[in-house]
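RECORD TYPE: inverse folding
INPUT: structure tokens
STRUCTURE:
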């Protein structure tokens, strides 16, 4: 059977011929012509057009032609189904579908760039998909670092990085920021990342990205909420303020907001926390 599609193939227009020759018709012949000539040449040559709009063998919704051929011809080989999201991700620029998708795209694009003849490009591409199939069938769980000494080197490197991280000095801006936050929390001033970055003369994007490294692995917002909750628990333990007053004194917009955040951090409502404190004192 003859098959025909657009010239200059990269992903789907090489993956599909590989799938057809390996699982449907080993004697299949493939032709590549300019996009505007596919349908007329298909009729003249009695060939099946694929991977162009308006024909049966094409993309459907978020699936590519490779996916359609799998379903149409009921190909059940597990390794081919492992390949499918890799091909789909590479062909539709959704590299999040499979870790290998971006690599397949890079190699395929480079192959097409180096090879000007479509027939030769298909021949080399068949080897590429044979290799991908072998990986999917036999080598998915094999890692490159198989030798014991390689794993030992990796473990040592990881340990070194961890020690370096633990011994890393806290930068001056982080120390200054901690003091500023504590001062403003104590006086109930409004805090903003932008305002603090201007005070420290540190870019807000950098401050936001680096903040968690030096503040208990918390984002700026979570760290501020934690300090407010710490202050709230102190007020609950040492004063007779109402919950509304404590909410105001700790910078929450209202009592319901205060109650919701307090429960998120402590696992209990402020009123339940206060009752437990009174009971423990008695």
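DESIGNED SEQUENCE:
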């Amino acid at each position: 059977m003859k098959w025909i599609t657009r010239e200059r193939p990269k992903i789907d227009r090489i993956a599909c011929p590989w799938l057809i020759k390996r699982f449907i018709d080993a004697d299949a012949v493939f032709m590549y012509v300019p996009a505007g000539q596919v349908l007329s040449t298909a009729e003249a040559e009695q060939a099946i057009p694929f991977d162009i709009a308006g024909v049966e063998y094409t993309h459907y919704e978020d699936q590519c032609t490779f996916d359609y051929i799998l379903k149409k011809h009921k190909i059940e080989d597990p390794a081919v189904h492992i390949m499918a999201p890799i091909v789909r991700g590479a062909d539709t620029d959704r590299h999040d579908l499979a870790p290998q998708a971006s690599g397949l795209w890079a190699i395929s694009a480079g192959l097409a760039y180096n090879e000007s003849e479509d027939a030769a490009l298909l021949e080399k591409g068949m080897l590429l998909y044979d290799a991908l199939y072998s990986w999917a069938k036999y080598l998915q769980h094999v890692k490159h670092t198989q030798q014991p000494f390689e794993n030992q080197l990796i473990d040592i490197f990881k340990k070194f990085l961890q020690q370096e991280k633990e011994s890393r000095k806290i930068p001056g801006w982080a120390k200054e920021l901690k003091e500023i936050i504590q001062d403003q929390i104590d006086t109930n001033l409004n805090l903003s990342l932008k305002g603090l970055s201007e005070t420290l003369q540190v870019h807000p994007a950098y401050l936001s990205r680096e903040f968690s490294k030096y503040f208990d692995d918390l984002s700026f917002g979570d760290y501020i909420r934690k300090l407010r909750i710490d202050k709230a628990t102190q007020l609950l333990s040492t004063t007779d303020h109402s919950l509304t007053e404590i909410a105001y004194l700790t910078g929450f917009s209202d009592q319901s907001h205060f109650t919701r955040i307090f429960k998120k951090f402590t696992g209990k409502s402020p009123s339940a926390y206060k009752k437990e404190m009174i009971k423990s004192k008695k």
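NOTES: The radius of gyration is 31 Å.
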